[in-house]
Structure formats: C-alpha cells, structure tokens
Amino acid sequence: MDIEQLKAFIFVANTKSFTRTAEILNVVQSTVTSRIQMLEKQLGKDLFERDKRNIKLTESGSVFLPYAERILELNNEGLKAIQLENGFRDHLIIGTTHALWDYVLFESIDNFQQTHPEVSLTLVTEHSDILIRKMIDGLIDVAIVFYPINHANIIMELIIEDSFVLVADSNFTIPDHFVLRKDLKNYNYIHLNWGGTFTGWFREVSSNQDCHLQVDHVSLLLKFLKTRNGLGFLPNAVAKRLIQQDEVVIVPFHTDIAVPKRSIYLLKRKMTKSMESSELLTNVLKEAFL
Q1: What Pfam families does the entry give (predicted)?
Q2: 246: enclosing H helix or E strand
C-alpha cells in the first residue's frame, strides 16, 4: 500500500463520496476508485459497501480506518520534521474569515510570531464552511469559525456569543434618540449580510425590502460609511476594535425583534506533535476576543 491509496481511503471514509474525494485530491474519480480497489486487493478485504446512493465502511474498513489515519499522520509528521530542519520547531496552519483576521486577530497573530519565532505559521482566509471542510480533510490545524462541528478528530470550543451593533463613521453625528428599524432607509443604510441568524433577522427587520447599497466586505462598508455618512451593522467583536481605533461609533438602535447572537468557535485538530505550540496559539487567539 502507498500513501496516495491511504489518502483516498481516508477521504472517502470521511466524505462518503468518491466525487468529493477526487476534488480534494485533485484527481479524476476513476483514479480514486482505482486506488481504493488496489488497497482492497492488497488487504484482501472490502473496505466499503457501495450502492447507487450510499457508501459506508465495512467492518474491515472501520477496523482499518484508525490505523490508516495514524500512518498518514506519521507520514505528515515526518515530512514536517524534514521541512523544519531550517530552524523552526513547529509549523501550524490557521484559518479564519477575512473580517476576523483584519479586525480582531491580526495584532495577536503578529505578536505571537514575534514572541515565538521558532513556530512558523501559514494563515488561511476562507468562509466558515470551507474552513470546516479543510479541518475535516486535515488541511488546517486551527480554525475560528461561526458554525459548530462534531468530528472525532477535531476539538471544538465556544469562544464567545457575539452580537451585532449598528455603527457609523466616527464623524457621524449621533442622534439624541434611538434609531428605529423604519428609520434605517433614511440614514443611508449600507447592508453587509453576515449570514447565519443575521440573514433571517434582517429580513424581518427590513420587511424584506431591498437595500439601496449592499457590499460583501468590511473594508467596503467602512469606506461607504465615511463617504455616504451612513449606517451599517457589524459584529460586536469587529466593532470593538474599530471603536478603539476611532474609526466607527455605535449608534443606538431599537427594534422589537431581538438582535441575534452569533456563536464563534475555535476548532483544533487532534495531533500528537505540535501540541504545545497549538495550545499556546489557541490561548492567544481566544484572548483576542476578550
């Protein structure tokens, strides 16, 4: 058996899909099928039960899976050890969203690497669903995401229950009364859809009315808040840093529909090596939200 066969087996076992495994490994589906068949031939056992709709592990496949995962882990650790011969003790891959990198975590990551020069880092920016998929696929060591996950190889920890606040540019004249939901359109409201519970909540708040301007990036929102003297919603964790930098101010907002909460989770992959560095890093990341 070889490493590519084991990778194909592990990814099919986790994704329950030959097609998805082929996408992950960047090969055609027939290659995945061939690798599984060769592995089954070498082991003398069927590893999967297949029909037109479902793929599941056989009893032999379930027995073999943890051993295959360990072999692959040892292979990765060996490659990492060779790559770290240039003086780094550990290498960690960390992923989160653009907004959290830019407005919550950048300073903490920068300080961490300056105080731990023996640890090399790779930073990945993606949406939560893609980060979770990469965690499952073993491509990321640590991630901060907005959705929970239950997986045998991933440790999950709730960091905070965040919320949303209405903000404006720091030069905005704050009214002496609460802004009501019916008032948003009169204040040059700029919409950034934060997904999750925010999407349904804002749909109710706005009575499904289209917004005059929608953006998909915090930096764009901030620019339009300044040029349009408008309003927009930010997660509190993001707004807090921008308030400290005197870039935005909170505008009092009142609605009879409660502003939703947004859970932020820290995910870390179970590993036999790099555990000390992973613990140090995750503590730094968590402290950034305090």
Answers
A1: HTH_1, LysR_substrate
A2: none
